[in-house]
Amino acid sequence: MAVTYKVLGQAKPVAATDTTLYTVPAGAGNYAVVSSLVINNLTQDVSTVRVAVRPAGAALEDKNYIIHTVPIGTFQTQVYTIGITLAATDVVTVHDSTGKCAFNLFGSENS
């Protein structure tokens, strides 16, 4: 089994649009471990953000949210050390009310 430590995903979503940040590669035995999520508000406008985990790429539902409508202040950085595991084809989806936040996901892919 190979373990690759890496930037799992980076995104700057369009305002009020659900955006895929990361999808675990398909394949038997593939999984990922998310160590941290960093959200940066790049402007002086306050944004609210959401982060969801969609098992096997399922349609987005309320139960998928791990962060929901959290304000990110002016030029603020929020760091989450979360340590979650994701199975093959699981999807991390992000949303930003203003389109002015950058999302960075770090961890390892295991195959």
Task: Please describe what this structure looks like.
The structure is a single chain. With 111 residues, this protein is mainly β. It has a single domain (3-110), classed as Jelly Rolls (Sandwich), CATH 2.60.120. It has no helices and eight strands. The chain has a four-stranded antiparallel β-sheet with strand order 1-8-3-6, with no helix packed on it. The mean pLDDT is 97.
Helix segment tally:
0
Shape: globular
> What is the share of helical residues?
under 10%
> Mean pLDDT, nearest integer?
97
State the total count of DSSP E strands: 8
Radius of gyration: 14 Å
Class derived from helix and strand content: mainly beta
Query: How would you spell out the order of helices and strands?
Result: EEEEEEEE
Query: What is the rounded distance between the termini?
Result: 5 Å
In the CATH hierarchy, the third-tier topology is known as Jelly Rolls
Which regions contain 5 or more consecutive residues with pLDDT less than 50? none
Strand content: over 45%
The number of domains is: 1
The major pleated sheet works out as: 4 strands, antiparallel
Strand order of the largest sheet: 1-8-3-6
So, CATH architecture?
Answer: Sandwich
CATH class: Mainly Beta
Write a concise synopsis of the structure shown.
This protein has 111 residues and is mainly β. It has no helices and eight strands.
Features:
mainly beta, 4-stranded antiparallel sheet
How do the helices and strands line up, and which of them pair or pack?
Blueprint: E1 3-11, E2 19-23, E3 31-41, E4 47-54, E5 65-72, E6 77-87, E7 91-96, E8 101-110
Antiparallel strand pairs: 1-8, 2-7, 3-6, 3-8, 4-5, 4-7
